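Two proteins follow. First one:
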Amino acid sequence: MPTQTIPAELTQYFEGSHIALALAEAGEDNPLLLVNEPFRQLTGYRDEEVIGRNCRLLQQDAPNVEAREKIRAFLESGRHASVRTPIVNFRKDGRPFVNLLYMSKLKALSGEVRFLFASQFDISRSQPELLSAYDAELSRTLARMNPTLAESGLVIEGSLMTIANSVATVAQAKLTLADLDGPGFP
C-alpha cells in the first residue's frame, strides 16, 4: 500500500486540472497515489481500482517494447528528468487507445525523488490541433504546478522539451490503432 503523504496543495491542484493526471510513489513498483477526474474519464477506472497499483495495468498484454524501454530508462536513471512516449493502453471496458504518456520526477529539495508525475492524452483518433492544444495545457499545468510544489518543498524535473512533432505523433498513433483494430486484438 502507498506510504507517501501527498501535499494538500498538490491534491487540490490535481482536482482542478482539466487534463488527465496521475501521481505515483517513487520507489518499489511505483503504486498510484492519486488520479484525477480526466484520468478516470479517459480510462474508465475508479480510484479504488487503480490507487495502490502500478499504472502498467492499463497496458494489459500489449508488447509496448519501445515505450517500456524508455519508461524503464527514465525510472532507473538519474539522467532522464522526463519522458514522453506513445504507449498502447486499454480502457477498463477493453477498448485500446494510444496514450501519449508524459512522466516527470517530483523531487524534495534534498534531491530525493518523492513522486512520479504523469499526464495522459489519447492520441488514437485525435487531430494534430487537439494535441497542440493539449501540449499547451500541459505546459501551463507544469508552469502553474511549480509554485504549488514549492510550497510543499518539491520541484518538478524536466520540461516539455520532450514533446515530439504533433503531426508525426498523431500519424503514428493512427497506424498503431489500425494494427490494434485488426485481427488478434479484442
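Second one, unrelated to the first:
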Amino acid sequence: MPSIVWVKDEGAEYAHVELSGGRLSAVGTAVGGGPVPYRLEYELLTGPRYVTAVLTVRSEGAGWTRSLDLRRGVDGAWSIGADASGALEGAEPGGDASLLDGALDCDLGLSPLTNSMPVLRHAMLGGGDPVDLTMAWVSVPHLAVVRDAQRYTPLGGGVVRYESDGFRADIAFGSEGLVATYPGIARQVTAS
C-alpha cells in the first residue's frame, strides 16, 4: 500500500499505510510549527471495519516530550496511558477514558490519516446519508485526549464534509479512501 506525504499549512506528514480486509495499519511521522515547533511519530492499528484498536504517539520539542498509548478493547472500553517530561505549556497528555464510551475511532489532531476510518467504514465515497460520530480526539502536540462529536456528510465525487465544534471542511479523498486534500489542514503531494 502507499507511502504518502502530506504538506500542511504548518509542516508535513509522512505515513506508510496498509489497507486490507477492512483493516488499516499505519506508521507515520509529522513535523509542525504550531502551537510550538514539534516532531511527532505515531503507529495506528484498527480492528475489523476500520475501528481503532491502538494508537501510540510520541511528540517532542525543545526541552519536552509527550507520549500516549490509546487503546480500544473488543468490548468497546478505552484505556489511556500517557507520560510527559519537560515543560510544555497547555494540557497534559492523556485523559479520562470513561468519557470515550461509544467512540469507535481516534482522531489525531492535524493528521489527515484518521479521517479515513469512518469514511471507509461507512462507504462514504459511494454516497449515503450524514453520519454522526463520537471520536477520541487527540490534541497535537500535547496528546490530550477528549471526547469529540463529529459529522461526516458524503457530497459525491470523492468529497466528504467534515464538521466538528463549528469547524467545517470539504475533504477530498482518493479512490483508496485516503485524504487527497483537506482544506486548511493538508494536501497530498506524493503517493506510491
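SUMMARY FIELD: Residues 3-191 form one domain. The mean pLDDT is 96.
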